[in-house]
Amino acid sequence: MSTKLDEFRTYRTRMNNRIGQIDHLGIKRFFNLDTNAYKDGALDGKTKELLGLVASTVLRCNDCVDYHLIQCVDAGWNDGELFDALNVALVVGGSIVIPHLRHAVETIDTLRSEHKGK
Amino acid sequence: MSTKLDEFRTYRTRMNNRIGQIDHLGIKRFFNLDTNAYKDGALDGKTKELLGLVASTVLRCNDCVDYHLIQCVDAGWNDGELFDALNVALVVGGSIVIPHLRHAVETIDTLRSEHKGK
Amino acid sequence: MSTKLDEFRTYRTRMNNRIGQIDHLGIKRFFNLDTNAYKDGALDGKTKELLGLVASTVLRCNDCVDYHLIQCVDAGWNDGELFDALNVALVVGGSIVIPHLRHAVETIDTLRSEHKGK
Amino acid sequence: MSTKLDEFRTYRTRMNNRIGQIDHLGIKRFFNLDTNAYKDGALDGKTKELLGLVASTVLRCNDCVDYHLIQCVDAGWNDGELFDALNVALVVGGSIVIPHLRHAVETIDTLRSEHKGK
Amino acid sequence: MSTKLDEFRTYRTRMNNRIGQIDHLGIKRFFNLDTNAYKDGALDGKTKELLGLVASTVLRCNDCVDYHLIQCVDAGWNDGELFDALNVALVVGGSIVIPHLRHAVETIDTLRSEHKGK
Amino acid sequence: MSTKLDEFRTYRTRMNNRIGQIDHLGIKRFFNLDTNAYKDGALDGKTKELLGLVASTVLRCNDCVDYHLIQCVDAGWNDGELFDALNVALVVGGSIVIPHLRHAVETIDTLRSEHKGK
C-alpha cells in the first residue's frame, strides 16, 4: 500500500527533476549548496541532519520534516534520539508545532515499518 | 568595558527574576520545561544546545541565539563546529538569517575574548 | 458523510495516542501545560480559547485553528463573535491569513451543521 | 481532468462567496484593500503581482502562491521571469521555501498547459 | 526619566505623522482598518485588545506588544489577566516568545508606575 | 551627525569582513549566491531589488529592509514607487508589518537627505 511518505517521495523526485530542467543557474547552485550543507565537515553529517530536522520542525514545514527524517533514520539516529530532538523543537516552537510533531511521529513509524518490510 | 552581551545577561537576569515574582504557575512550569529540554537524555545536553542554537537562528531571535551560544561554548563546542551549525541555519532559513549570523559571530567573538580575559 | 473536520479529529486522536505511547517526559509535560493554559484562571477559559484561536490564525496553522474553533464553539462563542475575532487576526496577519480565514469559516459552518444534526 | 489548481479555484470562489455572505464590514474592507493594492499606481499592476508572488513564496503560502501565479501569467510575465523572481524568494527565504518552489513550478506548468488547451 | 516606552511613543507618533504626509491611499486605508478592528462590535473593544496583544506576542513584535499593552491597560485589564493572556501566547509560541515576555512584563511595570506617578 | 543607517552600514561592513575571515566554504558560497540573485537576468536587477525589499518587509527584518532600500534608491526607484511596494508588503503581511514600515520610511528619508547633502 502506498503511504503518504511514498507520495511525498514520488512528488519530490518528479518536481526536483522538473526544476532541474528549468536550468536556472541560481536555483541549481542553491540546490547544490543545500546538499553540501549536510556533508561531513567540522560537524559530521549525522549531527547536521538532526539540526536540519529541528530547523524544519520549528519552521513548521512537513515536507522538510519528512526529508530530514528520511536522512536522520538513514544516518542511524534511533527513535529515542529523534523524539528528544523533536522535544527541543516543541519547547522552542510551542504548541503550534504539535501538528508537525504528529506528522513527524507518523513518518518515523512509516520509516521503521519500511525497514522491517525489507 | 561592558559589551552588548553583558547588557543582555544583566537584562535577562533582572527580568527573569521579575517574571519569577509574578508567580504564574503556567509560566513557571514553562520555564522549568524549557530548562529540562536541554538536559542529558536520549541525546546529550551538548547536542541539544546546538539544536537550540539552530532553532533560535532560523526563527531569528538574537536574544535566544545569545543564550544558546553561551550554553554551546560552555558545553565545549568549538568555533568551527558552531560556524558549521550556523551554516545549516543559513541554508535552511535563507539570507533573512544573515543579520542574525552577524550577531552570532559577534557574540562568539565576545565569548572567546571573555575566556581569554579570565 | 465524513467531513474534513472528522478526518482531522480522527487523525488527531490517533496520533495523540501514539505520542502518548512514546512516553517522553518532556513531551507529556508540554501536552499537560498546553491543556492547562486554557483552564479558568485570572481569565476564564472561554476567553482563553478565543486567544488561542487568534494566535493559531495569525501563525497560520489550520489544524490549530480547527482545534480552537471546536473549543470556542463548545465554550459558547457565537458566529458574529468568532468572525470579529478572525477579523482581528486578518488585520494583524494580513492577506496571507486569508486562506486560513476560508478554512476557519468552513470549519465553523461544519460545526454549526453538526449541532443542527444532533 | 481536474487539476489541483482547478480544485483551489473552485474552493476559493466558494469560500470567498461564503465570506461575502457573512457581511462583516472589516473583512469586506480588507478584501477591497487587498484587491486595490495590485491595481496600477506609482507601480504598474504587473510589477505588483510579482511582488505579491515573492511575498507569498517567502511567507510559504501555497494558496497565495497559486493566486499570484494566476495573476502573474495573466499580466504577461514569462516563465524565465517567474523563475528569476522565485529564485529571489528562494535565496531570501532559504531551503524551507523549496517545497513551495516545487508547488509554484507545478502551478506554472498547469497554467501554461491550460493556455495551450484553449 | 525617559523610559524605553516613552521613546517608542515619541518615535511612533513622529513616524505615523510622517507616513500620513506620504498620503498613500492604500496605506491610509490600512491604518483606518487597523484602528477600526479594535472598536466595539460583536466583541467589545476590551476583548479585542487582548486578542491583539496575544497575536503580537506570538508574532514576536515588541513595538506591537507595547502598543497593545498600552491599549489593554487603558481598557482596564489587570496584571493577573495580562499575565494569563501572555501565558497562552507563551504556550502557543514556545520559548522563542520568552524575550518578548520579558519585554512585555517590563512594559506592564512601566505602565503601572506611570499610573502611580499621576 | 551619524544616523542609525550609518551605524548599520558600519556594523554590516565590519561583521561581513569578520565572516569572510572565518572562511567557511558554505557560508562564502551563500553570500555569493545572495549577491548574484539580484544581478540582471531574465528580470533586471532594479526589479529584483524591489522584490528583495518586499520579501524583507513581510519577513520583518529591519537590517534587510535597510540593505534593500539602499540598493533600491541606487537603482533609481522613486519614493512613490517605494511606498507603493511597501503598501503591497503591508497588505500581504498585515499590521504586524507597521513598525517595519515606520523604519523603512525613516530610512528612505535618511537616504534622500544624504543625496541632497552631496
Number of helical segments of chain A?
6
Summed over residues and divided by their number, the pLDDT of chain A gives a mean of 97
Q: Structural class of the helix and strand makeup of chain A?
A: mainly alpha
Profile the largest sheet of chain A.
none
Order of secondary-structure elements of chain A: HHHHHH
Low-confidence segments of chain A: none
- Helical percentage of chain A: over 70%
Radius of gyration of chain A (Å): 15 Å
Give the overall shape of chain A. globular
Model description:
By secondary structure, the first copy, chain A, is mainly alpha-helical. In chain A, 80% of the residues lie in helices and 0% in strands. In chain A, helix 3 runs antiparallel to helix 4, helix 3 (45-58) runs parallel beside helix 5 and helix 5 runs antiparallel to helix 6. The longest helix of chain A is centred in the C-terminal third of the chain and has 20 residues, at 98-117. The first copy, chain A, starts with a helix and ends with a helix. Chain A binds chain B through residues 33-34, 37-38, 41-43, 47-48, 50-52, 54-56, 58-59, 64, 78, 80-81, 83-85, 87-89, 91-93, and chain B through 33-34, 37-38, 41-43, 47-48, 50-52, 54-56, 58-59, 64, 78, 80-81, 83-85, 87-89, 91-93.
